[in-house]
Amino acid sequence: MRPRPLPYPMRTALTVGLSGLLLLGTAAAAVPDPEPSATPTPTPTPTPTRRGTSPGAPDARLDYAPGRAPALWSIATAETIMARYPDYRTAYWKDWTYVQGYMFRGFEMLYESTGDKRYLDYMRRYIDAFVDDKGQFHATKTDRNGQVQPETLTNLDNLMTGTTIAALYELTGDERYKTAARQFREVFDTYPRSDGQFWHGTGAPNMWIDGVFMGQMFAIRYGRSVADAAYCFDEAVRQITTHAKHCRKGDSGLYLHAWTPEPAKKGWADATTGLSPEVWSEGLGWYALVVPEALAVLPKDHPRRSEVEGIFRGLAAALKRTQDAKTGGWYMIVDKPDEPGNWIDPSGTAMFVYSLKRGIELGLLAEKEYAPVAARGFESLLPFVSINDRGLVDVDGGGDGISIKKDFAEYVGVKRVLNAKEAVGGFLWAAAIMEKPELAKLKKR
């Protein structure tokens, strides 16, 4: 008998109820008719408000001492996310986003290391809000006109959290998750491509480095945990290598953000090459995360494994070369450290730390050469993190929800905010892998 879905905390109806009473009161009030006008004034159409990243529950508190480092940053960060967002659907700009899947891979790492079911239960509560008793996936979003519409899997970002559905099938054996994950897998069968690489969204041929991560983290996990391993692993190789072919920046080992075969339609694209202009740290970070994860499951005798290994080792060497000698971090535009306005990016830095440490774990990188690079990178993150006066982890200095920019100035000019969602997720991944030996000591024997 499969376990029952875990109950989800009920949302309060107080705000809605009060709003409704106010509206009724306004409608009931006597308002004099306006004088007729020869030219009626058009009624403005209200612009729907897009949700942003929520600061979380105002009463969220933990017992960590303000201003002092916790014993394990990874656990403190995960506990902070759970405290801030008892209902994780309310955290970001819509209920179903890639961010939850990104965070949940960090939660799964903690579950694997410690055996603490809190992390698994939190993942399940969120996913069970979207997967019904028959394994059908249901999600909604609010469109630009303020109308609630079904969430469609027409953007690679929307596939990322399907990774958690596939993971839950492996971790629980619940057939609902297998059925739901299959719905995500079938998206690939008709998804549009250019030169074999998936478009980031189905509306236009734009290939983003972010999309390689979002789509292929799902493919890798589906192949490992559910079915279609040969197809999934081949697809991951295709996506990784095609992006490398188009976006490799000379022989640097670094990769540009995006490319398009229709550069005239995109302000960010070079008119001749169709390439975006810069090596953006977080974009490169998405790629740095997914490549070793693909190698973790790719068979040793896969005909293109050596090609993917070459991409990863070249990237690792480039990261070692571009690490800031003073701080140990990496710049927002990775290969332009001396350009005025450039700054150390905690999000990209955290991703690179994870990638290098994962490469060491998998035997792809020499520990003697790369362990000090990863360690210095992790140390460089510590000035960005702190325990606030409510005992919660804050991650400062990252940009939130950054997209493709047309030039260097736009990339480095993004607003840096407290608890940018990608910076929090990156720090969780980095802390979970760097603290793994200490986390393992917590596992019940």
Description:
This protein is mainly alpha-helical and 445 residues long. It has one domain: Glycosyltransferase, CATH 1.50.10. It is built from 16 helices and ten strands. It has helices at 14-28, 73-84, 98-114, 117-127, 156-159, 162-172, 175-185, 209-225, 229-247, 281-297, 305-322, 346-361, 367-381, 408-412, 421-434, 436-440; strands at 140-142, 148-150, 193-194, 197-198, 207-208, 258-259, 385-387, 393-395, 398-399, 416-417. It has a two-stranded antiparallel sheet with strand order 1-2. A two-stranded antiparallel sheet has the order 3-4. Strands 5-6 form a two-stranded antiparallel sheet. A hairpin with a 5-residue loop joins strand 1 (140-142) and strand 2 (148-150). The longest helix is centred in the middle third of the chain and has 19 residues, at 229-247. The radius of gyration is 23 Å and the shape is globular. The protein starts with 13 loop residues before the first helix and ends in a 5-residue tail after the last helix. Mean pLDDT is 91; it is low at 1-49.
| First-last Cα distance | 27 Å
Corresponding CATH architecture = Alpha/alpha barrel
Describe the strand arrangement of the main beta sheet, using strand numbers.
Answer: 1-2
| Quaternary organisation of the protein chains | single chain
SSE blueprint and pairings:
Blueprint (H helix, E strand, L loop, with lengths): L13 H15 L44 H12 L13 H17 L2 H11 L12 E3 L5 E3 L5 H4 L2 H11 L2 H11 L7 E2 L2 E2 L8 E2 H17 L3 H19 L10 E2 L21 H17 L7 H18 L23 H16 L5 H15 L3 E3 L5 E3 L2 E2 L8 H5 L3 E2 L3 H14 L1 H5 L5
Antiparallel strand pairs: 1-2, 3-4, 5-6, 7-8, 9-10
Helix pairs in contact: 2-15, 3-4, 3-15, 6-7, 6-8, 8-9, 8-10, 9-10, 9-11, 10-11, 10-12, 12-13, 12-15
